[in-house]
């Protein structure tokens, strides 16, 4: 693992720093108290302290998301995140030519971007492309997602972690936090974000996928969504900016099925009935993608 990332990881059991160690023919991360965490052959490390209460997105949901994102339909999200990241990431010194030594002070000449609930890592990869001196860490509880996130960008690593638990990061380890359609842990986000850093939160706007809600029986965007976001973050952050990004999509029937399969409605719809309703839609299916991107700054500690 890139030492720029390893340097800021912490043992989820005791909070001590982690170093790489061999475990036979495999790799593991270990702390001074001998807690050990395996690095999967697909490249991600399991940094859960015990079992997660849920397993996250299934392999089918992750595959659907990867296909849909690869077609560029949600590039408005990646592009918006990359544009904002380039303006809000704290300034740093001269970029490092290589990896830094484990144990170097945090917040040096390289920023760390952490994506909490990263999924396949596509949005993180776009942000890293806009920040050539940054390293990235994808956190997710879904193993199928992490298998893809571990390969999303040469400067990114991936770790299995539950956003609702204590994050396996040092205090102030992150310069930029991303949170796209994912759970928000206000206290932990505040702890791991450095004081000059920023949290970028992407949530669906009221008209997101509105054309599909009625015909396909999908879940509606909660009218109180923004109130709930503010409730989870307001005690620890101040919202500095917000913008809505919209794009009209022209989708095929299979792409509509993929779109539904990658979101929360996948848990709440009958597959056979959904396929019948999708088949009745006239192609191309016109759909509004509308998201709200908010910039949150940490409150003083």
What are the SSEs and their pairings?
Elements: H1 3-6, E1 19-23, E2 26-30, E3 36-38, E4 45-46, H2 59-70, H3 75-88, E5 112-116, H4 122-130, E6 135-140, H5 143-149, E7 156-160, E8 174-180, H6 186-192, E9 193-204, H7 210-216, H8 225-233, E10 237-251, H9 253-261, H10 271-279, E11 285-298
Parallel strand pairs: 4-7, 5-6, 5-8, 6-7, 8-9
Antiparallel strand pairs: 1-2, 2-3, 9-11, 10-11
Helix pairs in contact: 2-9, 3-4, 9-10
| Tally of helical segments | 10
Q: Give the overall form.
A: globular
The first-to-last residue Cα distance is 31 Å
Round the Cα radius of gyration to an integer and report it.
Answer: 19 Å
CATH architecture: 3-Layer(aba) Sandwich
Largest sheet: 8 strands, mixed
Tally of DSSP β-strands: 11
CATH topology title: Rossmann fold
CATH superfamily assignment? Vaccinia Virus protein VP39
Indicate the proportion of strand residues: 25-35%
Name of the level-1 CATH class: Alpha Beta
Notes on the protein architecture:
The chain has helices spanning 3-6, 59-70, 75-88, 122-130, 143-149, 186-192, 210-216, 225-233, 253-261, 271-279; strands at 19-23, 26-30, 36-38, 45-46, 112-116, 135-140, 156-160, 174-180, 193-204, 237-251, 285-298. It is of the alpha/beta class and 301 residues long. The protein has one domain: Vaccinia Virus protein VP39 (Rossmann fold), CATH 3.40.50. Strands 4-7-6-5-8-9-11-10 form an eight-stranded mixed β-sheet, with helices on both faces. A three-stranded antiparallel β-sheet has the order 1-2-3, with no helix packed on it. Strand 2 (26-30) and strand 3 (36-38) form a beta hairpin. Residues 93-107 have low confidence and may be disordered.
């Amino acid at each position: 693992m890139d030492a720029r990332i390893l340097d800021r990881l912490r043992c989820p059991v005791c909070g001590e720093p982690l170093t790489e160690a061999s475990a036979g023919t495999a790799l593991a991360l270990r702390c001074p108290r001998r807690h050990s965490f395996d690095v999967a052959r697909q490249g991600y490390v399991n940094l859960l302290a015990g079992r997660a209460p849920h397993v996250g997105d299934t392999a089918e949901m992750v595959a659907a998301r990867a296909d849909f994102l690869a077609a560029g339909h949600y590039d408005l999200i990646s592009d918006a995140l990359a544009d904002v990241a380039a303006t809000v990431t704290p300034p740093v010194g001269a970029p490092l030519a290589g990896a830094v030594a484990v144990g170097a002070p945090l917040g040096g000449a390289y920023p760390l971007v952490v994506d909490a609930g990263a999924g396949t890592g596509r949005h993180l990869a776009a942000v890293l492309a806009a920040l050539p001196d940054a390293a990235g860490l994808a956190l997710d509880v879904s193993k199928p997602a992490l298998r893809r996130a571990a390969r999303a960008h040469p400067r990114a690593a991936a770790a299995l972690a539950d956003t609702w638990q204590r994050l396996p990061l040092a205090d102030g380890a992150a310069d930029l936090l991303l949170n796209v359609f994912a759970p928000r842990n206000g206290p932990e986000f505040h702890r791991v974000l450095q004081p000059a850093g920023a949290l970028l939160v992407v949530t669906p706007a009221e008209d997101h996928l509105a054309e599909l809600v009625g015909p396909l029986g999908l879940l509606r965007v909660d009218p109180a969504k923004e109130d709930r976001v503010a409730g989870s973050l307001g005690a620890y952050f101040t919202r500095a900016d917000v913008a809505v990004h919209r794009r009209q999509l022209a989708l095929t029937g299979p792409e509509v099925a993929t779109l539904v399969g990658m979101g929360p409605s996948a848990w709440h719809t009958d597959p056979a009935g959904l396929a019948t309703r999708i088949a009745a839609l006239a192609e191309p299916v016109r759909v509004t993608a509308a998201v709200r991107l908010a910039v949150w700054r940490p409150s003083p500690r």
